[in-house]
């Protein structure tokens, strides 16, 4: 098999998995089964035939509309079907055909589900983050970037730091600023990346979140009370920490000298 055949096969596999992640994103917040019933249009409830359910291609051919009732199909479908294989290829280039590749891809898939649910509903589903904590701890026995001790420290540092922030914010402002969902998410990220990775994810996420917040206020005139979901930024931070973490920490340490 030539390299290109492998890349194309991985991309196709990734887009099919992305299609499944879309089902999870839509159904988990509604507490629906992710297996039954088969895909159907949310507007007219008509089942979607398999030839209209081909990742990426169908969305373009149908012009982002349901074939029957012509109601618009969320752009989220297209985005996730494209983003998932893109991340899969990136992780493959980075880790090669290793367990670390498969494990990190599963982790990133969980982050994709969390990101899109948080964007849409401003919640982070416990059904992913809570079992994610012990599962990520188990992974720490098999991956090269952390070990079980660092992973345990990651759960404490990740969950603990955000918990202290949230409690402090609430004490000072008498308002709830950060949801418990973010705390559990960073605990899961800490379990997966270790305590350094958890802190790096938090710093990167807070940085990207602040810039986005300032831009939203400047461009759209949103006021400061407008809550931006933090989950997508923590997730993006965790992805960068996974792929660029060691380089970033090295850069920081050398620049500091
Ligand atoms: Zn329809």
Secondary structure topology:
Elements: H1 3-27, H2 57-61, H3 75-95, H4 99-121, H5 126-139, H6 148-173, H7 180-220, H8 231-255
Helix pairs in contact: 1-3, 1-4, 3-4, 4-5, 4-8, 5-6, 5-7, 6-7, 7-8
Bound molecules: zinc ion.
The site of zinc ion has 8 residues, from loops.
Keywords:
257 residues; mainly alpha; 2 domains; globular; binds zinc ion
3D structure, described in words:
This protein has 257 residues and is an all-alpha fold. The chain has two domains: 1-96, no CATH class; 98-257. Helices cover 70% and strands 0% of the residues. It has eight helices and no strands. It has helices spanning 3-27, 57-61, 75-95, 99-121, 126-139, 148-173, 180-220, 231-255. The mean pLDDT is 90. The site of zinc ion (ZN) has 8 residues, from loops.
Coarse shape: globular
Number of strands: 0
- Uncertain runs are none
The helix-strand sequence is HHHHHHHH
List bound small molecules. zinc ion
By secondary-structure content and strand pairing, the structural class works out as mainly alpha
Largest sheet: none
Number of helical segments with 4 or more residues: 8
Q: Tell me the distance between the termini.
A: 48 Å
Helix content: over 70%
Q: Specify the oligomeric state.
A: single chain
Report the sheet-strand fraction: under 5%
Rg from C-alpha positions? 20 Å
The averaged pLDDT comes out at: 90
Nutshell version of this structure?
With 257 residues, this protein is an all-alpha fold. The protein is 70% helix and 0% strand.
């Amino acid at each position: 098999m030539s390299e290109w055949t492998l890349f194309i096969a991985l991309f196709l596999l990734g887009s099919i998995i992305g299609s499944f992640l879309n089902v999870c994103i839509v159904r988990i917040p509604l507490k629906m089964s992710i297996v039954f019933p088969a895909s159907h249009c949310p507007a007219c409830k008509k089942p979607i035939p398999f030839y209209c359910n081909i990742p990426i291609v169908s969305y373009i051919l149908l012009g982002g509309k349901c074939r029957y009732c012509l109601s618009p199909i969320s752009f989220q479908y297209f985005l996730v079907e494209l983003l998932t294989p893109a991340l899969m290829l990136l992780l493959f280039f980075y880790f090669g055909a290793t367990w670390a590749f498969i494990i990190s891809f599963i982790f990133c898939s969980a982050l994709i589900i969390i990101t899109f649910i948080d964007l849409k509903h401003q919640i982070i589903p416990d059904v992913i983050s809570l079992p994610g904590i012990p599962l990520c701890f188990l992974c720490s026995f098999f991956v090269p970037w952390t070990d079980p001790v660092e992973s345990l420290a990651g759960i404490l540092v990740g969950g603990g730091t955000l918990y202290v922030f949230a409690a402090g914010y609430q004490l000072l402002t008498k308002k709830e600023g950060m949801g418990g969902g973010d705390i559990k998410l960073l605990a899961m990220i800490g379990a997966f990346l270790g305590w350094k990775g958890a802190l790096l994810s938090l710093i990167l996420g807070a940085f990207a979140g602040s810039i986005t917040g300032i831009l939203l206020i400047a461009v759209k005139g949103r006021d400061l009370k407008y809550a931006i979901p933090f989950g997508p930024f923590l997730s993006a931070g965790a992805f960068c920490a996974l792929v660029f973490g060691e380089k970033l920490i090295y850069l920081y340490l050398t620049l500091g000298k």
